[in-house]
Amino acid sequence: EMGKGSFKYAWVLDKLKAERERGITIDIALWKFETARYYVTIIDAPGHRDFIKNMITGTSQADCAVLIVAAGTGEFEAGISKNGQTREHALLAFTLGVKQLIVGVNKMDSTEPPFSEPRFEEIKKEVSSYIKKIGYNPLAVAFVPISGWHGDNMLEPSTKMPWFKGWQVERKEGKAEGKCLIEALDAILPPARPTDKALLLPLQDVYKIGGIGTVPV
């Protein structure tokens, strides 16, 4: 009705009226589902630079980051540029302690020509070079070409990208491989929970409420 058909999957998590009207994620949203191995909680964080505070709030709670990179002509270049959001989000994720990373190369249907292997390889090379500089090991990162609009390589291998033989990761815990994004999520290593250590609580804000006092949140 609003002429935003390409946002149909985003609308599962974009509940606010302003988010749907503007076609961007503003606040973080949670969505739970089950895979073959895990119960997964998706923290949908905004990618727009105006809402970076909300992105930090969501990312700080994550065990693994899924960095979505747009493959469209000009879109990737804008994101990977000096002040681009692809760079900033990858750096923030690593700085916030999210050491596991998956890269989803999205909008493969909008490349020239559609579902272009050279475009995917170009993006993979550029992103690998950058994330290596900030501390990630590219060999331990799954790069998956996807189309969120059509659902290609999200849950099942796409027939439109026969050239993609699958992703592989190498890490000290062993190797993993697959073809889809859902399989990359299943390859995440559960982080060690230091339950025997002292309790630390994140502090997001402090409110002074009349008649009650100072309340940390």
Automatic annotation (TrEMBL):
Q: Which Pfam families match?
A: GTP_EFTU (PF00009)
Give the GO molecular function terms: GTP binding; GTPase activity; translation elongation factor activity
- Which superkingdom heads the taxonomic lineage of this protein's source? Eukaryota
Q: Does the keyword Phosphoprotein apply?
A: yes
Record InterPro entries: G_TR_CS (IPR031157), P-loop_NTPase (IPR027417), T_Tr_GTP-bd_dom (IPR000795), TRAFAC_GTPase_members (IPR050100)
Enumerate the spans annotated as Tr-type G domain.
Answer: 1-195
- Gene3D superfamilies per record: P-loop containing nucleotide triphosphate hydrolases
Q: Which UniProt keywords apply?
A: Elongation factor, GTP-binding, Nucleotide-binding, Phosphoprotein, Protein biosynthesis
What is the designated name of this protein? Elongation factor 1 alpha
Provide the species name: Lymanopoda umbratilis
